[in-house]
Amino acid sequence: MSSVIEQFQAQINHAARQGQTLAIQGGNSKAFYGTATHSDAVLDTRAHSGIVSYEPSELVVTVRAGTPLAELEAVLNGQGQCLAFEPPHFSVDSQSHATVGGMVACGLAGPARANVGGVRDHLLGVQLLNGKGEWLTFGGQVMKNVAGYDVSRVMAGSMGTLGVITDVSLKVLPQAPAEATLVCHLPQDKALAVLQRWGAQPLPLNASCWVHDTTAHPAQEMLFVRLRGAVAAVDAAVPRMCADVAALGGQAAAIDQTQAKADWAACRDQRLPFFTPPAADMALWRLSLPQTAPVLDLPYAPLIEWHGALRWLWAPLSAAAELRAVAAQAGGHATLFRAPLQAPSDMPPVFSPLPAVQQRIQRQLQHQFDPHGVFNTGRLGLS
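Request: output the structure for the sequence above.
Response:
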């Protein structure tokens, strides 16, 4: 056990004895996300950094939680591999402060999520410190390593409420040998329809993004789709998909790959013009829906990802009930992802309320990991 782990244990045990709470923090790049809570002190994971082991031939990497995400991705890139779920960095001042532990704790994924899975799907094992300062190991470093409950995956999206993630083992994948991005000029209903059609076909469709671009003159409705896979598969898909768009009365063409890569990274990190707050009282909402959900009856223009399953929109806090009702009717839920710049004290819940049974299970799970309530209690909206 390293001295850093022992320091973490001492900080946890001290907080438990004093009845204090700790905010688990890495680069703090996702501090805006989740229910705002008060903590007595910060447990900073960045002192516990570095790659523990990496076997490119095995497609597995084990890394300490305080390791900068950019550092891990650079090492993987050097071996022609990647984190296929494209975790967002949410850079501040053009600098990435995201850590691997924060990536797992927040459980957020980028444009490729609909095709390759999310953080949870690539998490093989974790080591963590629970609320009693015990250092626990779950999962392992191979693809099939769990009999019974896969506790390690519970940590993905736990928002620091269950423990301090110290080490994680992740499945990595080779970078695709070929990639292309198409821009298709289609209205929202036709874009959703063609995405559903393509999703049922053997196409190397990897990511999609539909947006009503009001910065262009005149304004344009555009669907961007990214293809990744074997060279022959991508080359064959491009003319076929362009023909499908033409049959719907739209136009499609491949765009420059250098620009496309920059645009997809901007989409991942919410640096596209759409993500600039249109007014100080507007909040960014995240609607998670089935991919087959239709155009929503809402007066707010969305940006749509994940082939229709993820819809971002700017709306006032007063629209919370309407957004959640429409999302529920479509079979999904709505999350208050970013609060307004001028946030009032009476904020609506960040997350859609869970059914009573799920709330009870989540509270009991949190109590088992953190019986003294040391960690980010309430970050998920549970008291």
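The radius of gyration is 21 Å.
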